[in-house]
Amino acid sequence: MSRFRSFFVFQVDNSTIAGLFESLFADISAVTESVECVDVEQESFIEVGCYIYRVFPAIMELKYAKKSPKNAREILQSISQNVNLAKDLVGECHNENQPVSETELASIMAKLEVVIKDIGECLCLIPSATFGGEEYAETAVQSLSEEMQNVHFEVKQPRELRVKELESKMSFATEQPKKSKMTVESSQMLQQMPMVWPLSEEMQSVHFQIKQAQEFGTEELGPKMSFATKQPKKSKMGIESSQMPQQMPMESDLYSVDVEVSICTESSQALNMPILNDFLKISSPRRQYESIDKSLTALPKVAHYIEPMYDTFFCPITKKIMSDPVTIESGVTYERKAISEWFETFTHLEDTTCPTTGMKLTSRVLSTNVALKTTIEQWKDRNEVARIKVARVALSLASSDSMILEAIRDLQHICKRKHYSKVQVLSAGILPLLNKLLRHKDRDVRCEALELLRQLAEDDDEGKEMVADAMDLSTLVELLSSSHQPVLYASLHFLLELSRCQALGEKLGSATGAILILIRIKYNHQDDSFASKTADEILKNLERVRVNVKLMAEYGFLEPLLTHLTEAGSKEVQMEMASYLGEVILDNDSKTYLAERASPSLIKMVQSGNPIVREAAFKALAQISSHHSNGRILVKAGIVQVMVEEMFARWTYDEPINSKKEAAAILANILESGVEHDSIQVNPNGHKIGSDYAVYNIISILKNSIALELNINVIRILLCLTKSSKSLATIVSVLNETEASYTLIEFINYQHEQLGVAAMKLLITLSPHIGNTLAERLCKTRGLPESLFESTTETNHITEKQAVSAKFLAKLPQQNLTLNLALLQKNVVPIILQKIILIQRSGIRTSRHATVYLEGLVGILVRFTTTLYEPQILYLAKAHKLTLVFTELLMRTSSDEVQRLSATGLENLSLESINLSRPPQIKKTKSTKFFSMPKFLSSRSSKRISIPLLCPVHRGVCSSETTFCLIDAKAVERLLACLDHENGEVVEASMAALCTLLDDNVDVDKSVSLLNEFNAIQHILNAVKEHKEESLWQKSFWMIEKFLVKGGNKSVSDISRDRSLPASLVSAFHHGNGSTRQIAENILRRLNRMPSSSTSFYTM
Fold first, then answer.
1. Rounded to two decimals, what is the model's pTM?
2. For 98-112, how does the pLDDT look when each residue is reduced to its tens digit (9 = 90+)?
3. Which distant-in-sequence residues (6+ apart) come within 8 Å of 883 by Cβ?
C-alpha cells in the first residue's frame, strides 16, 4: 500500500502532532475557500490557493512516517503560522464596501509571495528518511519546495477590465451544490497562467486554463471537484451554460477549480513518473467519508456530470436518467421500456393506472417527449467532454488499478452512446495511454484496455487506422500468446476488428509472429474452439492481402494460397500464387498436400502461352517434385508427357531452352522418386520413357546442349533409367552408336564441379558394360586421368568430386593395362598412399565424402595387383610394399568395402607368390668342392654362412616385400578374423585370399598344418553357418574338403562335431550349382553321410 494515505483516514499517533495537523488542515481549507471569493487579481490568488493546497501531501508524509523526524513539530508550526498569515492577507481583499487600492493589492501580493517562499523553505527541511526510501515522493516534495521558493506574483492588469472580459468562472465546490464566485479572463489565462502542479521534475509544465463556466449542482452527485466547505455559496457572477461560447468544449480538472490541468504528455517520463497514489485517488461520485467533516480529495471523479441534473431527467420508475422519455395520459414522463413493462402488469385496460399519480388511465398511448429527449441528449453531449478529460488524466496518473479500471469503463460507456463519442475519445489523446496499459501487470486492466480499443475501432476504417497507427503491434502479438483466457479472447476480438480493414492487412500480417501464432491458435481447435474460430476469421480477413498469403504458406497454412491458385479467375493472381509456391520453403507434408491439390492447375499453367505464368508454374512444380513421395501423384496428373514435350518437341522449333532446364529438373525429380518408369508413356504414340525414341532424344540433348544445368538434369534422368535393365541396354547401345561417351568424359574436365560429378556417376554405372571403352577414351582425353588427382591433400577439404573421381577410377575394369600404365606413369601411387595415411590419422568423420574417397583410393591400388605380369607394375608393388599396406588396411578401417578390397588385393598378390618364391642359391667355392672341414671345427669358424629361411608353404625364400607372402606379412591371422565379419562380401574376399594357401601349387600339408595352428577350421565352419551365399559356400566347402584330406584326425574330428554343417551340405547338394553340389557331395561321403565312390577333387 502506498505511503500516501487517503485524506479521510487518520491514525493519530501523537496528540500534539494530531492537533497541529487538524489545525493546519482547517487553515488550508479556509485559505482555499477564501481565495475563491476574491474579485481582484484572481489568477494570482488562485495560484496562492493552489500552492497552499499542494502542501497537504507533504504534511501527510510527516504524519504517516514510520519514524517521525525530530523537527516535525517545528516544521508543522512554521507552516501553520504562514498559512494563518496567508488567510489574513487574503481576508483583507474581501471588504466589498471598501475595495483595496492598487498599491494595497501590490503589498498584499508581495507579502503572500514571502509566505509561499517561507513554506517552501519549511518543506526542504523534511529529512530524506521521512520518505522511507520512496524516491518519487521525495522528488515530488523537493520539486514543490523549489518551485515555491522561486515563486513571484505580479499585479497584471487594472481592476476595471476584469468583469468585462470574464468568459468562465472557477469554483471550489462545497458538499452541497453552489455557484462559483470567481470569473476570469479566458484568453489571458491561456497565455499567462503559470505552471503550478509539478508532480516531479519532469511534470512541471502545468498551466491553468479558464474554461466555460458550468454550474455544479444536484444532491445526487455528492462531493464535486472542490476544496470542501460546509455551506453552499452563490456566485457573484452567474453565467448560465446556455450563454457560454459554444466553440470551446467543456473540460474538467483534477482540482476543484474549473481549470484545465495540462500535463506535458510529450514527455514519456512525465507520464510514467510515480505519483502520490493515495493522495490522487478517484473517489466514488456518491461516496463521502466519515473520518472528517470536510471532503478534500486530490483527484475526485467529476461524477458523471458537470452541468446540473434536473429531476425531470430521471424516470420515476427506474430512478435513472432516461434515454427514450415518453409521456403518458397523466402527463408524467417515463422511460419507454419501464412504462411499457408497467402496463403489461395490468390485464385489463380499465385497471391501468399511472405509477406516479395513481390516476386511472383510459389509454396506453406513449408519446415521445421530444423536447426532454433532446435536452437530455444535449446535456449528455456537453458533459461527455469533461468525463473524457477526467478519464484521460486518471489514465495518465495510473496510481491504482481501481482508478484505471474505473476510467476505462467510463470511456467504454461513453463510446457506446454514439459514433461521435468515439471521435471525441480518439481526439483526446487516449490511445497512447491505452497502448501503454497493454503491458500493465493487472490482467483486468489489459482486458478492459483491449475492449476499449476494440470499441474505438469497430465503426469505420478511419477509426481502425487511427487505433492501429497508435498501437505497438508487437505488444498485441505477445498478448495472443497469453495463457490467461480473458486476455487471449480480448486480444483476438480486437485483432479481428482491426483485420476487417483491408488497408491494415499488410501491417497486421507483417507484425512479427502474428500470423504464426494465429495459425497455431487456429489448429488448436480441440483445446479452445472459440479461440480457434476467431483466429480463423482473422486469417480469412488477412488473406485478402496477397503478401499475407505467402506468409501463411511459409508457416504451413496453405489453404489460402491454394484457393487463390485454383479458384481465382485472374491470371495475375494465379501467377503470383504460383510464384509464391516457388519461393516459399515448405516441409515435405506441405509439398504432398500441394501436389494433390495444385498440380493439375500448375500443369495447365505450364501449357499456357504466357512465359511469366509458365516460369512461375515451373518453379512451383520443381519444389513440389523435390519431395520423392509426390512422384506418383504427379505422374498420375500427367506431368511426364508435358515435361517430355517441353524437352523434345520445343527443341525442334529452336525455341529458347529456358523451359527445357526446368522440365528436365522436374522429370529428374520424378524419376528419382522411384516410380516404375518402364510403364510411363511420354507421348500419344505410345513411346515409353525408356524407349529408343526417348533415350535417343535425351542423349541428343546431352550432346548438343551447352547449358550446364540442363546437362546435369539430363544426366540425372539417364542415371535413373539405368536402374531398369531394359533401359540400361538401350542407353549403352545409343552411347556406342553416337559416341556420346566422349561427351560424358569431357564433362569431367569442366570447371563446373556438379556437372563433372554427375557425369562420373553415370559413367560408374555404365562401366561394367562399356568399361574398357571408357578406360581407353579416358586415357586419350587431354588432361586425364591425372586431373582427377589435382586437388588438395587435406582430408578436411575432401570434396564430392574427389571422392567420385577416385571411385570412378576404381570401378573401371581393373585389368585394363592401358589405364593402369597411365596411372603408373603419372606416379599416382605415392599420392594415393599419402592420402590414405592422412585419412587414417584424422578419421573418416572429417568429411562426409571421406569414406567413399578412401574406398576409391584403395580400389585404385587393387587395380595394380591384377596386372602384376607387367614388370613395371610388379616393381611398383614391391617398391611400395603393397602386401603390408593391404594387411594394415584389413584391421585399421571401419569401412567394409575397404576390407573387401584389401582382401582382394592380398588374394591377387598371394597368387603371384608361388611364381616369385625361389630356392636359396648358395655359391660354392672350389676349395669346398675338394675339401670338407671337420664337423667339430665347423662350429668354430670365425665366419658363418647365412642361409635364408625357406617358406614351408611356397617351398622357397619368401618375404612380404619381394614375393608378397601372406605368412611373412602376418596376414593369415587377420584374414581369419575377417571370416567372422557380418558382411558376406568381406568374408568371401577373405576366404578367397586364404584359398591361395591351399592351392595345388603350394605345399598343402604344411599349409593345413599352419592354418590349424590358428584354428582356421572353426572360423570356416562359423562362416558357413552365418552366411548362405553360394559363392561363399563353394569356397568354404572347398577348404573344408582340403582339411578333411590333409588335416588328419583332428581336422576330421573338428569338422564332424559341427552340427550345423550337414544341413548346409545337404542344402548345397540339393540346390547348389554343379561345382558346389560336387564339393558338398564329396564332403558328405568323407563324413560317411553318403556311399563312397571314386571322385576327383574339384580344383578352385
1. 0.61
2. 677 888 888 888 888
3. 906, 909, 960, 961, 964, 965, 966, 969, 971
